[in-house]
């Protein structure tokens, strides 16, 4: 667990270590099957996988980059980029709709890190474990896997929201007392909400909960301020292109909370204040809601 947080070279060596990732996944599967999601070894295994999934899209070997970023057959003139970190914006936009290759039924090694089997394991641990570190690491692994705009993050996001029905488990984490767990759950939702095809599902399932955990006044610590900022940016993503979702925020009595956050300009709270102001500006662009806002 300590070694997995040693940096890019450490992560690379551990991902390449034959049987290591497979063994970690195997152990966690056994713990869940035996109804023991709270033991310390499971926590350690999940924390290692969480660390190994950090910046995964950027750090994958070129052979995986080539196979994941497959070009559509009708795009013949563009060169397939070999490095995740040097994609042009134009190529990125084309690749956003490019699906992942069909999942292997028996993934090995690094392939397991983004496979739907492990995604479902994380969601199961989020739902069943009561250890805060296990919950936070499971949420954090999914946050890592959904960071970015390539096919892999988008495919993982779709699996979480649509295939594995993960939103109820994530939503429950918004209401836990542990600040780091709540913050990581919100950060994951922020990543998921960037995908336009998932925004209506997310708004329907969790928008009222996001509004409910917005503070009535200035939070007293940095973690709470960062969480508030992430909530505002998530709500921005969900409402920017949807008047219906903006009305949902209004119905959930979110507007007074967002206004209260936006007008506080203390140094500690500036990040949350800026995020709330961006959200308010976006909400005002829905001109059909002006009369409702004024009321």
TrEMBL record:
UniProt keyword annotations, A-Z: Cell adhesion, Cell junction, Repeat
Main location: other
Subcellular location(s) per record: Cell junction
Gene name per UniProt: Pkp2
GO cellular component: adherens junction; cytoplasm; intercalated disc; nucleus; plasma membrane
Region (Disordered): 79-108
Name the UniProt record assigns to this protein: PKP2 protein
Entry's family note: Belongs to the beta-catenin family.
GO biological process: cell-cell adhesion; desmosome organization; heart development; intermediate filament bundle assembly; protein localization to plasma membrane
Basic and acidic residues compositional bias, start-end: 93-106
Native source species: Calcarius ornatus (Chestnut-collared longspur)
InterPro entries assigned to the protein according to its UniProt record, in alphabetical order: ARM-like, ARM-type_fold, Armadillo, Plakophilin/d_Catenin
Cited SUPFAM superfamilies: ARM repeat (SSF48371)
Gene3D superfamilies, per the entry: Leucine-rich Repeat Variant
């Amino acid at each position: 667990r300590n070694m997995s947080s040693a940096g890019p070279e450490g992560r690379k060596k551990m991902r390449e270590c034959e049987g290591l990732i497979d063994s970690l996944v195997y152990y966690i599967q056994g713990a869940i099957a035996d109804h023991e999601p709270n033991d310390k070894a499971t926590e350690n295994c999940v924390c290692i996988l969480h660390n190994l999934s950090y910046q995964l899209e950027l750090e994958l070997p070129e052979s995986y980059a080539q196979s994941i970023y497959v070009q559509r057959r009708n795009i013949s003139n563009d060169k397939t980029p070999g490095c995740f970190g040097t994609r042009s914006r134009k190529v990125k936009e084309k690749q956003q709709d490019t699906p992942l290759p069909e999942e292997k039924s028996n993934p090995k090694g690094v392939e397991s890190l983004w496979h739907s089997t492990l995604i479902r394991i994380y969601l199961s641990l989020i739902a069943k474990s009561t250890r805060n570190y296990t919950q936070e690491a499971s949420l954090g692994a999914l946050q890592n896997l959904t960071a970015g705009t390539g096919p892999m993050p988008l495919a993982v996001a779709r699996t979480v929201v649509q295939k594995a029905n993960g939103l109820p488990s994530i939503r429950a984490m918004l209401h836990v007392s542990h600040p780091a767990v709540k913050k990581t759950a919100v950060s994951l939702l922020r990543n998921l909400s960037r995908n336009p095809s998932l925004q209506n599902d997310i708004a329907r399932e969790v928008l009222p909960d996001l509004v409910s955990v917005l503070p009535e006044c200035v939070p007293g610590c940095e973690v709470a301020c960062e969480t508030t900022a992430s909530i505002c940016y998530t709500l921005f993503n969900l409402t920017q292109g949807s008047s219906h979702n903006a009305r949902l925020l209004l119905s959930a009595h979110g507007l007074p909370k967002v206004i209260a956050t936006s007008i506080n300009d203390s140094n500690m709270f500036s990040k949350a204040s800026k995020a709330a102001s961006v959200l308010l500006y976006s909400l005002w662009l829905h001109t059909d809601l002006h009369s409702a806002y004024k009321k």
